[in-house]
Amino acid sequence: MSGFVIMSFCVPVVLLFLYIIIRHAKMGKILEGMSVFWFRFAFAFLLLFIIHLGIGYAGYNVPINLFSVLTIAILGIPGVLGITALIFFL
Questions:
Q1: Contact present, 21 and 28 (Cβ < 8 Å)
Q2: Which of 5, 15, 59, 70 is the least crowded, having the fewest Cβ atoms under 10 Å away?
């Protein structure tokens, strides 16, 4: 299949999906919550990377893994404090 055929199928499907989402407020709220979570997830990853660079000069190793990122994304500031406390005390 050529790219034009694929695009001529995908664009109407995506537009129909967006129309349905806009028409139903509950689905919009769900997608809004998901977008907030993914933003927090990305920000937690960035924050862990910055902490990794900063604390790495002092000789500590900050693991950047899924558990740490999810902990910070869900808990926020207490998650950051908890992860850094684990780093210093373990």
A1: yes
A2: 59
| pTM attached to this predicted model | 0.64
CA–CA gap between residue 23 and residue 21 (Å, rounded): 5
CA distance 15 to 50: 38
CA distance 64 to 68: 6
Average pLDDT over residues 76-90: 87
In order, the DSSP letters of 4-53 are: HHHHHHHHHHHHHHHHHHHH-HHHHHHHHHHHHHHHHHHHHHHHHHHHHH
- pLDDT tens-digit profile of 33-69? 888 999 999 999 999 999 889 888 888 888 888 889 9
**55, containing H or E segment:** helix 25-56
CA-based end-to-end distance of the chain: 55
